[in-house]
Amino acid sequence: MLYREAGDFNTSYPQDSQTFPIRFDRYRYYVVLAFAFLVVPFLINDYWANAILLPFLIYAIAAIGLNILTGYCGQVSLGTGGFMAVGAYACYKLMTAMPEVSMFVHVILAGGITALVGVLFGLPSLRIKGFYLAVATLAAQFFLVWLFNRVPWFYNYSASGQINAPERDTFGILITGPNAPAWATYLFCLIFLAASALIARNLTRGTMGRSWMAIRDMDIAAEIIGVNPLRAKLSAFAVSSFFVGISGALFFSVYLGAVEVGEAFGINKSFLVLFMVIIGGLGSIFGSFAGAAFLVLLPVALKVVGVDMMGWPTDIVAHFQLVIVGALIVLFLIVEPHGLAQLWRLAKEKLRLWPFPH
Amino acid sequence: MKLKLTTLALGAVLAAGPALAELVFPDLSYRTGPYAAGGIPFSDGYNDYFTLLNERDGGIGGAPIRVVECETGYNTEKGVECYESTKGEGALIYQPLSTGITYQLIPKATADGIPMHTMGYGRTSAKNGEVFSHVFNYPANYWDGASGVVNYLLEINDGDIKGKKLALVYHNSAYGKEPIRTLEELSKKHGFELILLPVDHPGQEQKSQWLQIRRDRPDYVTMWGWGVMNQVAVQEAANIRFPMENFIGVWWSGAEHDVLPAGDAANGYKAVTFHNVGRDFPIYEDLQTHVVDTGKAAGAGDQLGNVLYNRGLYAAMLAAEAAKKAQEIHGTPDITPAMMRDGMEALEITEERMAELGMPNFGPTFAVSCENHGGPGLVGVAQWDAGSKTWSLVSDFKPTDGEVIGALIAEDSAAYAAENNIEPQCK
After folding, report:
1. Fold of B142-273+380-405
2. ipTM score for this prediction
3. Beta carbons of B177 and B170 less than 8 angstroms apart
4. Model pLDDT for residues B93-108, shown as the tens digit of each residue
5. Has residue B32 got a pLDDT over 70?
């Protein structure tokens, strides 16, 4: 019913291997993109930007980054929070050192610096795997947070150890600071998310992505067929950290504006992003979006329903949030271990064959 | 373009404000998480005072009060969400009870024209009203607290603490790092040695810090702790048999729930404070009849008389007095955040006024001015008696080292002004 595929034939290889081979999907994708870029900026207000859309966009970038490493290359990482901190602090240092440069440049450079740090901490992955690698990345998480707390150079010797984003612009439009308009911050993050998703999607279906997936599925077999594990693993760490670094830079400069490393980029952040990837679906770009949306929107939705509509005490609602989110995670892992992306894939299959799915 | 959109946004906020004929006081509380032990009594006190005003006086100047509570969990991301979701309701003043959230909100609230009151926390240099137009931290700030600790040590050592060792056990965050600069200056001035011992969030793990204290044998230990960190520290101090009377916490490390778990071992623990303790005030009778007996007490209603409950009452009282002042200045009961700011800047708390409110000698008397948003910074010391389970003042409210603190505040606020291109606002 929803999908009418009659006459929708692919007559060339590029057509057949495009991201949305079904015409209906493709058009829907264009509509979503157009809505996000052309309609939302006119409707957005401070609440929607700062409480819902910015965190969603930024966490989606982080989830894409972690999905490349964990979902596509099979290297479990608990260092996401630490790498986000690298992006944030790199961005801060760049912003304060070169105030006249556009924010775009700062954020991309911050991603690049994080990629270098990511490669450095990816080196152990050449020798250790699985749980042991998870522990090694956990060490990275704690080390990086400790470093940013310990060395005053990183926070420009401020008394409190906090970093504050000064007002910076791009093409004359304020992007950071309290006077930045909601639509500008939203569009800025949206551009980064769209670009990240596009790059990630194309990387994962090219040579590089195939070598990552070969390593993920069985590293010895991959090595035998000629995949260089050094290049595959380190490139996965570099690309993943690049995206995570960008999300960390945006998280600090555009979304929060002031950050304290232990509180904002602690181990909780690593787990949060990991949950997003697991709930959304490992090895799926759409899953990164779905996971981020789920974990950002659900607490806000529960709060709106519990406190604003039902008038329950705030602490009860906060406790219920933990219970409900936790229960849903367990439920998801039992019912659909491949995440929301797989649920959507199944639903789509059924819709295509509707009314008689099998 | 930017200006136009800002004006539009501001216009929308202002248009939404006056439609409601009530005074909105958001309460960014935290009743969950590792800091809930401190967040609950403060929030209860804050809520109960406004409930009392509504029940007894019908609000402030005839306008009813609505408190909008929002749970932050002491988490900055949720704090931002709470700020954004409540500011559209015409919020008059923000008191987030978290230094991290305060740092976050200072630029935002200033841009939105909503005043903040960070009583005894937040950014200390906000005392300089020339730079921080919308942030107030009367009647005392962290650096007053640090200086108050040192002054108390001077007092009990007949004015000489040269060569003594003072250890600072602090929460490794913006909050805990605040006093370091002042203590360093004071250690230069008075010749004592300062040992810094950071404790990471949430603060349950302090064995190594206290082992270090046992090894270094400092004469005094002071603490900038919050939440579970406090009770763990008091217990650890008891474990290494550190003399409790030489252990002085800041005002966020000096409530009942911080010392009760250690039992008798906590006897003699001290904490600085900027307001009075206990429930020996006439206002508690009114609270009993109008709030508790009518079943309208916030939370479980079991926090009355606690140190932090008193602080919540005090915070609400100062906010209500500022709102009253704003109504007087502008001649309307229906005030906006901008009017509220004027009221806070003209606020004057006298002994007669406090007595009138049923809170005689509850805090210091002070007057706020455009230049000085921080009040006089008078600090007293309270001591815990484990036998009767009560706090009592052992040193009255005394002035702190204005010379050292003033210089530091000028330096820090000048740096902030330069970073953000702020012109001095007072004429």
Report:
1. Rossmann fold (3.40.50)
2. 0.87
3. yes
4. 999 999 889 988 999 9
5. yes
